[in-house]
């Protein structure tokens, strides 16, 4: 399984990576520090298409919202589930992102154990 994590916070990336390894050491987790880096990775046909994209909203440069918009324009990437995870708890924003194609909207976990449970619940869910 391949996961792309898009997050500008180094500590959050580290927690996410550690949690994926606890869930399954065979999970490949690629990280991007912003939307621009994520789009460069995703548009490179030599890179595998991720099974899931976890993306923060608030990032410098290309935001998570703009990145989501660009991902959903690409026929090759459109089917990939994009899970927006952010410190925002704005219900209107969550509804807007779902309309734009986000699969799920989650509040960013505060505690390390919660990161593990967030990732495992997403990976175990049926997304048909």
Descriptive account of the structure:
The protein is α/β, with parallel strands linked by helices and 128 residues long. The protein has a single domain, classed as Response regulator (Rossmann fold, 3-Layer(aba) Sandwich), CATH 3.40.50.2300. Helix content is 44%, strand content 18%. It contains five helices and five strands. It has helices spanning 10-23, 35-43, 64-73, 91-100, 112-124; strands at residues 2-6, 28-32, 52-55, 82-86, 104-107. It has a five-stranded parallel β-sheet with strand order 2-1-3-4-5, sandwiched between helices. α4 links the parallel β4 (82-86) and β5. α1 (10-23) packs across α5 (112-124) and α2 runs parallel beside α3 (64-73). The chain is globular and about 35 Å long.
């Amino acid at each position: 399984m391949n996961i792309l994590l898009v997050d500008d916070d180094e500590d959050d990336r580290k927690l996410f990576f550690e949690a994926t390894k606890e869930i399954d050491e065979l999970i490949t987790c690629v990280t991007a520090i912003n939307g621009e880096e994520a789009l460069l990775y995703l548009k490179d046909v030599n890179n595998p298409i991720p099974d899931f994209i976890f993306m923060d909203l608030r990032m410098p440069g290309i935001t998570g919202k703009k990145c989501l918009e660009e991902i959903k324009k690409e026929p090759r990437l459109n089917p990939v589930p994009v899970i927006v995870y952010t410190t925002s708890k704005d219900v209107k924003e969550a509804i807007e992102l779902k309309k734009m194609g986000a699969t799920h909207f989650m509040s960013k976990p505060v505690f390390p154990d919660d990161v593990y449970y967030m990732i495992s619940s997403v990976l175990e869910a049926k997304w048909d």
